[in-house]
Design goal:
308 residues; 13 strands; 3-stranded mixed beta sheet; elongated; 4-stranded antiparallel beta sheet
């Protein structure tokens, strides 16, 4: 598929097993070092663990929404080619929509959002046979740098499966609550490495009264579950969008502890970086790191990139 420009003067050409969850490769398990565990499990819904069992209609609705999200990512796996000079941001996003058929909702300045992207921002980009989702990410990054309003631009999936893209401050308005079970991460199996020594020569008869055991161990000091929980919270808030958490003065995410679970209220792009998408194959979800920051990157499906 080739992109034909509206302005002739411009030179243009045109990761979980399926339906499974991330396990040992989850962002937290990969980053915790001495804390080893199978991973993080997400439960969709506002404190679903306290709610009554969902009705069949509600479960069917959630399944339908999940299918729509997976379908959108498949559409955005299609390979496209773009060679543009100073082409308006809005036209490039419209081109991706027309080629892939995906529903994309850009947040522009003239919309009802408190802030947004300038649709007229000139973008220069050259890519050949690159997945549409990757192209969208590059376009957003270029627009962010050119506009220079001090905001980061990104994308996220909405509840109905469309892609919303624009400043994080606007995307932060659409939050959901997820429950992350960390019981395996905070459990510690005692390691009794200080057992007393047994001297067989002292175990003979004769009524000497001497014990065959010597060098009895000292009490073992173990990190409490509360301390390990706090370490996980500190890691999470310092490595995934550190400026967005309420404890850092941000308005993007907040976290509380419930038993052995973390209750996180955040927009989709933050949840995606914590645990990925359970409806997307694990082989297409990669734990990435840059400095102290860690996140899960969602990759397009190469088998679907060439769908006509």
């Amino acid at each position: 598929m080739h992109y034909t420009p509206r302005h002739p003067s411009h030179k243009l050409s045109t990761g979980i097993r399926p339906n499974g969850k991330l396990t040992a490769c989850s962002m937290l398990a990969a980053a915790l070092g001495s804390l080893s565990a199978p991973g993080i499990i997400a439960t969709t819904g506002v404190l679903g663990f306290l709610a009554e069992e969902s009705s069949a209609e509600q479960r069917q609705s959630r399944t339908s929404d999940t299918q729509e999200k997976a379908s959108t990512l498949r559409l955005m796996s299609k390979a496209i080619t773009i060679d543009v000079e100073d082409q308006p941001l809005e036209e490039l996003i419209d081109f991706i929509i027309s080629v892939t058929g995906a529903q994309i909702e850009p947040v522009y300045l003239e919309s009802i959002a408190s802030s947004g992207m300038d649709p007229a921002t000139p973008i220069s980009l050259r890519v050949t046979n690159v997945a549409a989702i990757t192209v969208l990410e590059r376009i957003l990054k270029k627009a962010e740098r050119i506009e220079g309003i001090g905001e980061d631009y990104t994308w996220q999936l909405t509840e109905i499966g469309s892609i919303e893209c624009g400043p994080k401050s606007v995307l932060n308005e659409n939050q959901r609550v997820e429950l992350y079970d960390i019981a395996d991460l905070i459990f510690v199996a005692p390691d009794f490495d200080n057992a007393p020594q047994f001297n067989i020569q002292s175990s003979g008869g004769g009524g000497s009264g001497q014990s065959p055991f010597s060098g009895s161990g000292q009490n073992i000091t173990m990190e409490s579950s509360a301390e390990r929980t706090q370490r996980i919270i500190d890691l999470l808030e310092s490595s995934v969008e550190p400026d967005q958490w309420a404890n850092a003065g941000g308005d993007g995410a907040s976290l509380t502890v419930y038993g052995t679970s973390l209750v996180v209220s955040a927009p989709d792009y933050i949840h995606r970086q914590i645990v990925g998408y359970d409806f997307w194959p694990a082989r297409l979800q990669t734990v990435r790191a840059k400095g102290d920051k860690r996140w899960i990157q969602i990759n397009p499906d190469p088998k679907l990139k060439s769908i006509p």
